[in-house]
Design a protein that fits this description.
Shape: globular
CATH topology of one domain: BirA Bifunctional Protein, domain 2
Strand order of the largest sheet: 1-5-6-11-10-9-7-8
Distance between the termini: 33 Å
Helix content: 25-40%
CATH class of one domain: Alpha Beta
CATH architecture of one domain: 2-Layer Sandwich
Number of helices: 10
Oligomer: single chain
Structural class: alpha+beta
Order of helices and strands: HEEEEHEEHEHHHHHHEEEEH
Length: 282
């Protein structure tokens, strides 16, 4: 029996102080983004293309349109924003900097509010990562910024037959160390930018190139509270290189990175409003 006051598990209810905090986060983020030249976009809840964004399509909430074409509810905003700007609005705007404030919806009833940012055609991740740091500073939140490079796990899988991407998804440190490769062990324990130069001198050239990208990003970063996590692998389909997470203890407040949509390289991030609301409410 479902009682009249019940709401589905995973859906969100904001009222009173929590609604006020949610609005404060959104207002601060939109003010900062507007001052940095970003314009707002609100995308449709229904999409034909969400399967291109989600690693596990079982998370999609599926419906059909009037012609019986397969649709799904918006489970991720990034690829839809880029596609709409390029394919639908392309000739009507030259604007490349966009933000959105809207929820994503995943099966069965998971609802997650986000403040998302996409800088289309931009390759420097620091151009948006520092804006995310500004938003957290304005909210007086001091989380940790974790820097990764998605290419490193992919390169290691190519180099070592014993490794698979699942080892990186599950952070299988024992397996990495069991290979007994000196530079790989040092890579596992790499945490701070000051350690990179020593490692660059001994790793294979392909890994060296990706570590230098991490080093350059760290030099452009406006946040001093940061660590490097070269073995971390993001689960999203589209991130292909530099990547960051904003975390506090076990809570993830934001994720962002560099990605490609067709041939267009872009950078962006999403702030997870619900997790931030919980922290600020406390």
């Amino acid at each position: 029996m479902i009682l009249e006051h019940e709401i589905p598990n995973g859906s969100k209810l904001y009222f009173g102080n929590s609604a006020k905090i949610k609005r404060k986060i959104e207002n601060i983020a939109s003010d900062i983004l507007d001052s940095n030249g970003f314009e707002e976009i609100v995308t449709p809840v229904f999409s034909y293309h969400q399967h291109l964004s989600i690693a596990d399509d079982k998370e999609l909430i599926r419906v059909n349109d009037a012609q019986n074409n397969a649709l799904s509810l918006r489970a991720d905003s990034t690829i839809d924003v880029v596609r709409i700007i390029e394919k639908r609005l392309g000739s009507n705007t030259e604007q490349k900097k966009w933000f959105y404030i809207q929820p994503v919806l995943r099966y069965p009833t998971e609802e997650q509010y986000q403040v998302g940012v996409e800088f289309m055609g931009e390759k420097k991740l620091s151009s948006v990562m520092n804006i995310a740091v500004d938003i957290f500073d304005k909210l007086e939140v001091k989380p940790l910024v974790q820097i990764s490079n998605i290419k490193i796990p992919k390169l290691l899988v190519e180099m070592f037959d014993e490794l698979s991407i699942d080892d990186f998804r599950h952070i299988n440190i024992e397996k990495f160390l069991s290979l007994k490769v000196d530079w790989l062990e040092k890579l596992v324990y790499l945490q701070y930018v000051e350690q990179i130069d020593e490692l660059i001198a001994i790793v294979p050239e392909a890994i060296k190139t990706e570590l230098i990208k991490i080093k350059e990003l760290c030099s452009e970063m406006a946040c001093e509270n940061s660590v490097i996590a070269p073995m971390y692998y993001a689960k999203m389909l589209y991130y292909d290189e530099l990547f960051f997470r904003v975390i506090d203890k076990n809570e993830v407040f934001a994720r962002g990175g560099r990605y490609k949509s067709e041939e267009l390289t872009s950078v962006g991030f999403a702030i997870y409003t619900d997790a931030l609301c919980d922290t600020l409410s406390k």
